[in-house]
Each structure stands twice: as C-alpha cells, then as structure tokens.
C-alpha cells in the first residue's frame, strides 16, 4: 500500500499531471455550467407556458422554484 501511495504522489507531482487535472476540472465546470443553463431555460419555458395558461406568479414560483422577480421579467 505504501508503494501505491508513493507512486501516486510521484505521478501527481508532475507538471503534466497537474495540467491534465486542471483541464479535467475545467471540462467538468463547463459541463455543469451548461447543464445549469439548460435547466434554467427549461424552467423559464415552463413558467412562460404556465403564465399563458393563466396561473398566478406565486403558484409558478412555488412549483418551479423561480423567484417572482425572475418570472415577472419573462417575455411571453
């Protein structure tokens, strides 16, 4: 086990490893950002459809989790 730990420390100490790890973290961050953006857009589209159906802003906020101010800014 001690050899495995030492081997990991040796590999992770290289500049190449640190660069690859930064690239991996950047990629994961970008994926999470894109997913959050897509989720927000889906919630906003749902809120617009609810507004068109005559639902109240309070109900929409409760069901979608969007803030009332954000719902009021939606264009539909």
What key attributes describe this structure?
mainly alpha
How is the topology of this model organized?
Elements: H1 2-12, H2 15-52, H3 57-64, H4 68-73
What does this structure look like?
- This protein is mainly α and 76 residues long.
- It has one domain.
- Helix content is 83%, strand content 0%.
- It is built from four helices and no strands.
- Helix 2 packs antiparallel against helix 3.
- It is rod-shaped and about 65 Å long.
- The chain starts with a helix and ends with a helix.
What's the SSE pattern? HHHH
> What percentage of the residues does DSSP assign to strands (E)?
under 5%
**Total domain units:** 1
Number of helices: 4
Distance between the termini: 62 Å
* Backbone structural class: mainly alpha
Using DSSP, what is the number of strands?
0
Kindly provide the radius of gyration, computed on alpha-carbon positions and rounded to a whole number of angstroms. 22 Å
The helical percent reads over 70%
Q: Summarize the biggest pleated sheet.
A: none
Which spans of ≥5 residues are poorly predicted at pLDDT below 50? none
Task: Give the overall average pLDDT.
Answer: 93
The gross shape turns out to be: rod-shaped
């Amino acid at each position: 086990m001690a050899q495995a730990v030492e081997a990991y420390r040796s590999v992770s100490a290289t500049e190449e490893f640190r660069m690859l790890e930064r690239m991996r973290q950047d990629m994961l961050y970008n994926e999470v950002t894109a997913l959050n953006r897509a989720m927000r857009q889906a919630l906003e589209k749902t809120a617009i459809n609810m507004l068109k159906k005559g639902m109240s802003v309070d109900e929409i906020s409760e069901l979608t989790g969007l803030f009332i101010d954000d719902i009021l800014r939606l264009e539909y």
